[in-house]
Structure formats: C-alpha cells, structure tokens
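Task: fold both queries, return tokens.
Query 1:
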Amino acid sequence: MNFSHLRATVAVIGLAMLSLAAPSLAQQKLGPPAQTAPAAQQAPVAAQAPAAPAQATPPPASSVAVPAGSASGMADAVAAPPEGESKLLRPTATGGLRELSPWSMFLSADVIVKAVMIGLAFASLVTWTIFIAKMIELTVVRRKLRTALAKISDARSLAEAQFALGAKEGVLASLLAAAMREGRLSAGISSDAGIKERAASRFAEIVRAEARRIRLGMGLLATIGATSPFVGLFGTVWGIMNSFIGISKSQTTNLAVVAPGIAEALLATAIGLVAAIPAVIIYNHFSRVTKTYLELVNRASGAAGRLLSRDLDRTHGGSHSRAAAE
C-alpha cells in the first residue's frame, strides 16, 4: 500500500515540474523575460510534496506513466507562444500603408492635379473621336472620288460628264458645275484663254475649300499633341510642390510620407503622355492620307478643265467653219 502511495507522489511531482518548465522554455524562445523571478520562490514547490520513506526504493523512470495526449499538449505549449504574446509580435506597420492604384491616387490628389488629369483624359477622348470620324470620312470620300473619276474618264463634254455622274454630290460635281457656269457666263466671248483662266480660278477656290474641309480637326490634334506633355508636367510640378510643403509641415524626411503625393503628381505626366503620343501619331497619319486625297482632287480639277477646253474648242471650231463656209 505504501508502495502505491509512493508512485502517486512521484507522478504528481513530475507533472508539477513539467508544468513549471513549459513557460520558462517558451520565454527562452520569445526572448528574455521582463522580470526574472528569484530562485528562492521556486524552491518551495519541491518542499510541499510529502517526504518518501527512507527504506522504500523509488520506482524506475519508465514506471512513471504520462499520458501521450498530455505529453503532446505540453510539447505544443513549449513550441507555441501564448496567444496574447503572438498578437504583440505581429507587425502593425502594414496597417498604415496606402493603396497606390491609379484610381485611388486620382481620388487623393490635389484639386489642381485632378483638374489637369480630367482635362488630359478629355483631350485623349477627343483625339480618339477625331481619329474614328476622320478615318471613316477619308475612306468614304476617297472611294467616291475614285469612282467618279472612273465614270467621267470616257466623257467627251461637260454635259456628258454630268450625265454620267448623275445627281451625286461631291467635289468633282462641284468642279463640273463651276465649269458649266463659267461657260454660260462667258457666252459670246471669243477669247478662250480668258474663259479658261476664270474657270481655273473657280477650280482653285473649290480645291482650297475642300482642303480646309478635309483638314478639319487636324489642328486640334496638333494642339493636343504639342501641349499635353506640358500640361501634365504642370500637374506634376504642382503635386511635387505640395509634397515638399507637406515635408516642411511634418518636419520629417521619411520617404513613406511623401511617396503617395509624388506618385499622384507623376500620374499627371503619365496621362499627358497617353494623350499626346496618340495625337501626334494620328496627326502624321492623317497628313499623309489627306495629301493623297488632295492629289485626287487636283486630278478632278484637271479633268474638269480638260472637258471645258474641249467644249470651247468645239464651239469656236464650229463657228469658224460656219464663217468660212459663208
């Protein structure tokens, strides 16, 4: 009976020592404890246990039964720090970081920088609108003019050319109508050179008007392409100036304080380049396409002039033959 009491006493003492050793091991992993307890306070733990009889021999270490579940729980307690201490060790600096997406930078930007960004975005929208509209317009008018020139290629007079075109409107129809009008107004004048000169003057006016019409919107593209980078640079300078003012007010040189403001300012320059680069490329493309179309218009003007010259030669040739016959 005394031997069983001795085994129970030794098991209680072992569990007590393990429970006292677990927090000390956890503190060694986390760091030195804030305050070390004196060794004298830990000594009475062993004194509280009843003394074993002198004649009894202690059981072997293997005879002390410790449940497997309690041993694994003790190992987890030694390996993992307490919940409160783990929360204290988590970094809290990430909570103050700002999201630097383009939309968030736009919302947190200064009023002047916002106005610059909105203006540049509107300029970019105008650029792509002009591109789509002019591309459709130039494609249609070039196809129509080529078709009209093909129709009058075999015409022998202005009346025959107008009949071949029909009631269609276009620059070639305007040129033929101007030639017919000048022929009617110059009826009874025997000077063919004067009629051709006046008709050529009318043709030049029509060609210039067509060139102004077809170049409509290209000046706006040139303006956007030339000024957008400088407008974006103005927004950047304004934003960086505000960032430096914030540095002086906060009295700190930490880059994390001024980085959001500088990023917002640089976004204005990026939007300016997004608006300017397509505008310049589109302007150069339309300059080439417009030049090709105006060459077709000059060909139409020459065709109308040749038809007028044929009509004048027929009229004056017939009058001269009738006068010779008389």
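Query 1 returned. Query 2:
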Amino acid sequence: MDTIPMSDTSHRTATVGSVLTRPPAEPDVAERTPLPDPAERDIVFELAGVEVRYSGVTAIEDVNLKVAAREITAFIGPSGCGKTTVLRTLNRLHDITAGAQVRGTITYHGEDLYGPRVDVAEVRRRIGMVFQKPNPFPKSIHDNVAYGPRINGRKRGEIGDLVEEALRKAALFDEVKDKLKQSALGLSGGQQQRLCIARALAVEPDVILMDEPCSALDPIATARIEDLMQELKANYTLVIVTHNMQQAARVAERTAFFSLDVSNGKRTGVLVEYDDTEKLFTRPDDQRTEDYVTGRFG
C-alpha cells in the first residue's frame, strides 16, 4: 500500500510499544471507566493545522479540534465542505486515495497517527468505520461479523461468542439469531447498517467513525441507529458526519461546523466553529454558524 506523501515529517515521532505499534490486550468493556466530567475529558484525537489536498488542490485546511473519549462528536456543514475528508483522516483512509496528501498533525491518545512506526492495520482495527451506504459482504450474517476476528487471528472457538456479542451490541441479535447462516443481503437497509456496525464492533475497536450512517434509512430505522449510538457511547468514542442538523442536536455532545471559503476564486473547506452542541445551536460565536443552523444558507 502506498503511503501518503507528507510535507514535513521531521517533527513526527512514534513511541515504541505504543498503542498503535504493537497490538496490546484490550481492556474488558465492562471495566472501562465512565465518562469523565467535561473539564477532565480524556482526549482521543487532537488535530492541529490539518490540511488535506487531492492532487495538489486543497480540499480543507487549518483544522484544529479535539475529540473526547466516550462522547459523540458530530461534523455538520454544507455539501463539499470537507466533513468526510476530515473523518477519513482519523483512520488513515486517505492512504488508499490516489493523489491525497495529509498535512499537519493528528494524534490518537497522544501518539502521532501518521508516525513512521505506526501499524496502519492496527489503526483501522482500533478506529472502525461505518459508511453512508450499508455495505455487507455477499456472505452469511455470521460470516460478515466473523470476518474481522478471523483475519485478526482469533481462535475458532472464540469467534462464535464474538459474533453474538457484536450483534447484541448492535441491537440486532434477537432479529437474526435464527438465520445467521442466511445471506446478509436479505436484511432490510436498517438491519444491514446495524450489521455493519456489528462488523466494526467485532474487532473490539476503541473508536467508531460513521459517515452519514442514516442518510439512506427511513425514520424508524434512523431512530434505532440513533438509540444505538447513545448505547455505544458508554464504551466507545463515536465521530459522525451528518447532513441532518436535528440528528446532530439529538445525539452529539460536541459539534463541529464546517463551511466553504470561496474567496479569491477558491473553494476550500474550513472549520468555522467547534463547541458543545447545545451552545453551537443556540448561542454560536460565529455569524456563519448562526446563518447555517437557522437555515439562512445551506
């Protein structure tokens, strides 16, 4: 796999034996600590001066934000403003995008996510991704969820329990327990999306990224996914991209508003404001945020 060309890697360091260079034992979910007070947030991601270019053209620039553990952080903004572009930097999906360059610094639990010793496979195990359109494999329901544990070397005797646990966490097990050997493609859209969430959970991640996970779903299925997000944040950190401002207001503790800078003939994404969700929607600091959340543009 080709690596991303970097503008300056002289400042980058990696810690030997860190969470990304060597797969350590994951703590049992039940033993994870509860969400700390806001003033004592455990920071999972910190982005500083992040810029993403495609074939030399800047898509988004100067992104600075922190994502806290066991919270839901939402990215909102008009189409083309770079929300998904930033989301994909968090588990190095731009590594497989031809011509993509990621600049600036992104740390995960204090470690440089793009450091030279970082194991990219371990990044994507710890930081899972659920895409906009459900994308189950053309396999059985069981084999969809078992796929990750298998390629990560889990023993055959463990996989059945891991599959059931992941399906239960995704609020899907009771609906499919009698048809685990049937094709996942026969599930409804909402069930397929929850199956994809279960597939991400089966490899025991720390973070779940969601790129518009409800955009293709009906209101009932959307409500089930939103309820599931609220359950998952007790043990996982979630970062979601959504075009639905009401969804961000319902589920997220923190919200980042992105927009477009069209000055000087350019069309570049920028992070306008990042704050507690309630404040951003009711008392924003930037007029551009006020205009967007009140429907004056976008």
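Both queries returned. Flag for query 2: Residues 4 and 95 are 5 Å apart (CA to CA).
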